[in-house]
Amino acid sequence: MSSGLTHLDASGAANMVDVSQKDVTSRVAVAEGRVVMQASTLGLVLSGDARKGDVLATARIAGIMAAKRTHELIPLCHPLLLSKIAVEIEPDANLPGLTVRATAKVSGQTGVEMEALTAVSVACLTVYDMVKAVDRGMRIEAIRLIEKSGGKSGDWHAEDAR
Predict the structure, then answer these.
(1) Active-site annotation, residues
(2) pTM of the model as a whole
């Protein structure tokens, strides 16, 4: 029984992929997501007057910390020695809200897509947590991989991301 999915063995059971025979290559992944909120909530975040503190700085740090612990959160992920995690958070008055983008880099035998996606997810959740008292209707949405490079499968870019 072969499904073509790498995290399933021949009998269909979940397993951790053996990457020991893969080449070490430079790998990069970029993910993004959004937190949509009321315009007044965005103003509060940008003013730095949220009761819990600096929302953007806290969300950035939370995203970085989460990426480093991805293997503890996603059962079949390999622990990686990340060489870089960058989390950028940009206000967007048209949403209104914030766009969160994370870049993860490693020289290794497996990709860093899950680390970039985890960083974005936790950064968005942190924004929600820090200002939920004033806007429980916020939406976390559109979390997705934007691009990845390196490894056997090479480069990939979301069609609408460029």
Answers:
(1) 129
(2) 0.90
